[in-house]
Amino acid sequence: MNVTAGGEAGAGGLTPVNPDPTGAAEDSAAAAGIEGIGIGIGAIANEIGLTKDTLRVWERRYGFPQPLRSSGGERLYPQEQVTKLRLVKRLLDAGHRPSKVLPQSIARLQQLAEDSGVGQDAPDVELDRLVELLRVGRYDDFRFELLKRATLEGLARFVLDVAAPLSARVGNAWAAGTLQVYHEHLFSEAMQVTLRSLMRPLSEALRGRGTHPRVVLTTLPGEGHGLGILMAEAMLALADCECIALGTQTPQQDIVDAVMAHEIEIVALSFSASMPAQAVVNGLTELRAALPPKVAIWVGGSSPALRRKLPDGVLNVAGLGPIEGAVAEWRHSVML
């Protein structure tokens, strides 16, 4: 998804944007919002986790971002502004205020992130080497190294020591602009293939054994990242849970129907930092009200919303490692 900056601003009917209080043009824009020189506002909202209204308010109040206009009137954000918006989102999630970060240059934001410890990776030469293989386009070597590590380490150690920290590394590199969206997609595809190949024998062995809890795994509408919930499925299977995976972005009623049809005891959901915090809270509140009280909801992921007070009956399992303990506690509570 390569785009150019303001050097082509006068071409193809593109001009700098003046504030547009209505934003009517964006409402009918294509979801991808890409016309070769910039990324549309809808795509920015989905990928970074900033609402359209937030972007428009910042534009009016702080003078950033400063998108271009397509011939159809849609806001288009050049790559440099996208990179800055990723850094801004990370810093806001860490507690910084918009008025303090939006006027700063990318270099200053990168320094602020480094000074604050935002998006910093723990030292690991092997993981850095995997990221570099991805960055330079050696995808066959990248996939081979993943499979090799998975074969050597087994499912649990691969999830905890490779998949999870490598996912964080790729996300940080994407936020910093050193990896592009297509790199992230290639990484996600390779990791999912590797994890599914490791999980398949165990999942098939667990099916129909009558083990408890029975867990359905998915994400809510608006959350398209499925790698986190797949890693959680692996750890739940290792804890002898029978898992039913619904994929990503499952409507609320479909989740409720699956719970009833399969006698589900736990609904497990994953939330990335790209989903707006209020959408996370609202989605959980509505789902909790729609499910029977005896059905637990477990959540996890990098969303800052999970650090807020969650609705009663929603458990934040903070990380993949604690899943085994959470399952043991659930089983103990059922026996009481």
| Major beta-sheet overview | 5 strands, parallel
Number of strands: 8
Which whole number gives the mean pLDDT? 85
Give the radius of gyration.
Answer: 21 Å
> What string gives the helices and strands in order?
HEHHEEHHHHHHEHEHEHEEH
> What's the helix count?
13
Please estimate the helix content: 40-55%
CATH topology of the largest domain: the name is: Rossmann fold
Note the gap between the termini. Answer: 54 Å
So what's the CATH class of the largest domain? Answer: Alpha Beta
- CATH 2nd-level architecture of the largest domain: 3-Layer(aba) Sandwich
- Give the CA-based shape: globular
Point out poorly predicted stretches: 1-35
Structural class: alpha/beta
CATH level-four homologous superfamily name of the largest domain: Cobalamin-binding domain
Attribute tags:
336 residues, alpha/beta, Multidrug-efflux Transporter Regulator, Chain: A, Domain 2, Methyltransferase, Methionine Synthase (B12-binding Domains), Chain A, domain 1, Rossmann fold, 3 domains, 53% helix
Explain what you see.
- By secondary structure, this protein is an alpha/beta fold.
- The protein folds into three domains: 6-116, Multidrug-efflux Transporter Regulator, Chain: A, Domain 2; 121-206, Methyltransferase, Methionine Synthase (B12-binding Domains), Chain A, domain 1 (Orthogonal Bundle), CATH 1.10.1240; 209-336, 3-Layer(aba) Sandwich (Rossmann fold).
- Helix content is 53%, strand content 9%.
- It has helices at residues 24-27, 41-48, 52-62, 79-93, 98-101, 106-116, 125-135, 139-176, 181-206, 227-238, 252-262, 277-290, 323-335, and strands at 39-40, 68-69, 75-77, 214-218, 242-245, 266-271, 296-301, 314-316.
- The strands form two sheets. A five-stranded parallel beta sheet has the order 5-4-6-7-8, sandwiched between helices. Strands 1-3-2 form a three-stranded antiparallel beta sheet.
- Helix 12 (277-290) links the parallel strand 6 (266-271) and strand 7.
- The radius of gyration is 21 Å and the shape is globular.
- The protein starts with 23 loop residues before the first helix and ends with a helix.
